[in-house]
Amino acid sequence: MIRDYLIERRSWICLFFVIQILILFVSYLDSAIPLMPLFYIIFLSMLVFSMFLIFRYHKETRFYKSLAEWENNLDLTTIAEPESPFEKMVEQSIVNQSVLLKKEATENLLMLEQEKDELLAWIHEVKTPLTAMHLMIDRLDNEKTRAQLNHEWLRIHLLLDQQLHQRRIPFMENDLYIEETDLKTLLFKEIKMLQSWCMQKGLGFEVDLEVATVLTDAKWLAFMLRQLLTNAVKYSDSSDILIKSYHKNGRNVLDVTDFGRGIDPKDLSRIFDKGFTSTTSHLDQAATGMGLYLTSRIAKPLLITIAVDSRLGEGTTFTLTFPKRNEFVDIAGM
Questions:
Q1: Rounded distance between C-alpha atoms, residue 331 and residue 211, angstroms
Q2: What residues pair up with 320 in beta bridges, in sequence order?
Q3: 271-280, pLDDT tens digit by residue?
Q4: CATH C-level class of 181-328
Q5: Please, what is the Cα angle at 229 between 146 and 169, to 5 degrees?
Q6: What pLDDT is attached to residue 288?
Q7: Are strands 305-311 and 251-258 parallel, antiparallel or unpaired?
Q8: Which of the four pLDDT bands, split at 50, 70 and 90, describes residue 126?
Q9: Does the N-terminal or the C-terminal CB of the chain have fewer CB atoms within 10 Å?
C-alpha cells in the first residue's frame, strides 16, 4: 500500500523537489542570496514534507485499505467511512452497483426457482404418457420390436430420472430419512427395471448378500445403485454382473462388479467430474457424464464412501462403504 500511495502522489512529490531545485538554481544565479541558509531551509522543508506524507498516508489510505480487504460479498458495513469528496464518490458508486447486483441476483434466483419448478412439473407430466407407452409396448406381439422399444423407453426413463434427482439434490438434506434398508428388495427392484436391456445384451446378475440391510436413505441409495447398474450393463458384453455385500473393518460394504471394457487409468481421477464421459470412447453419444457425478454428489450427505477399482479390458468394481450408526447423529430422522 505504501508503494501504491507513493506512485499515486508522485506528481506532488516531483513538484516539491522541482521547487527546491528551482530555489537552489535561483540562489546560484543571484550571488546576493546566501546559499547555506537556503540549504537549511530546504532540509527543514523536506523534513516537514516527509512528516506530512506520513500523516496523509495513514489518513488517505484508510478507506482504500478497507476496500482492498473487502470480501466482495455485497456487505458494505466492512468498508471504512469515506472522508474526502472523491472517497464519497467511490462509495456511492459501490453502493449503487451493490444495489443493482442484489436486485439482479434476486431476480435470477426467482427465475431459476421458477424454471426448476416448471421442469419438475414437466418431468412428472411426462411420466404419465411414458407409463402408458410402457403398457402399450408390453402388449406388442412382435418380440424383437417390443425389446427394441423397451430399450428406448428405458433410456428415456433413466434420463428423466437423472434430471429429476439432479434438481432435488440441492435440497436433499430436507428429504433424507435414514433407516435400515433391505438391500435385496432394493437391488432386485432395480435389476427388474433393467431386465429387458439385460436380456437384449445376454447379461445376468450374480447376487451374494452377506449383509442383508444397511443404514441409509432407501430412495437416494436406489438412485445411486441405478446409476452403477446402468453403467455396468452399458459397458458389459456377455459376462454376468456381480453384486455382493459384506462386513469390512466394522462397516457394511457393497460391491458392484462388471467384466466389461474397464476404465482407462488416466480417466479414473475424472470419472466423478460433471460432464466427463471418457477419453477412450469420446464419440459415445449415449453417454451424458452425469450418472457418476450425481452418484458422488448423493454419496456425501449419505456419508457413503465410493471407491473404484478398474483395469482396462478386464472390468470395473465400484465399492460403496456405508457409515456406522453413530455417524448419523446429526442427520434428521435418526
A1: 23
A2: 254, 306
A3: 888 877 766 6
A4: alpha beta
A5: 110
A6: 65
A7: unpaired
A8: confident
A9: N
Q: Are 212 and 188 in contact (CB under 8 A)?
A: no
> Which is more confident, 205 or 122?
205
Q: Which residue has the cell 523536506?
A: 46
134-159 burial, b if ≥16 CB within 10 A, otherwise e? Answer: eeebeeeeeeeeeeebbeebbeebbe
DSSP 207: E
Q: In 10 A of CB 42, how many CB atoms? A: 17
256 forms beta bridges with 243, 318
Give the number of residues written for the chain. Answer: 334
Other C-beta atoms lying within 10 Å of the C-beta of residue 268? 13
The pTM (predicted TM-score) of the whole model is: 0.67
Domain ranges of the chain: 2-69, 181-328
* Residues 224, 276, 258, 216, Cα dihedral to 10°: -20
Kindly provide the b/e burial profile for residues 113-126, where b requires at least 16 CB atoms within 10 angstroms of the residue's own CB: eeeeeeeeeeeeee
195's grid cell: 431386465
Q: What are phi and psi of 129, to 5 degrees?
A: -65, -25
Residue in 188, 203, 190 with CA at minimum distance from that of residue 161: 190
Tell me the HSE value of 8 on the side-chain side, using a 13 A CA sphere: 11
E-strand ranges in the chain read 179-182, 205-209, 213-216, 241-248, 251-258, 305-311, 315-321
Strands 179-182 and 213-216: antiparallel
Q: At 217, list the grid cell.
A: 436413505
At position 333, the amino acid (one-letter code) is G
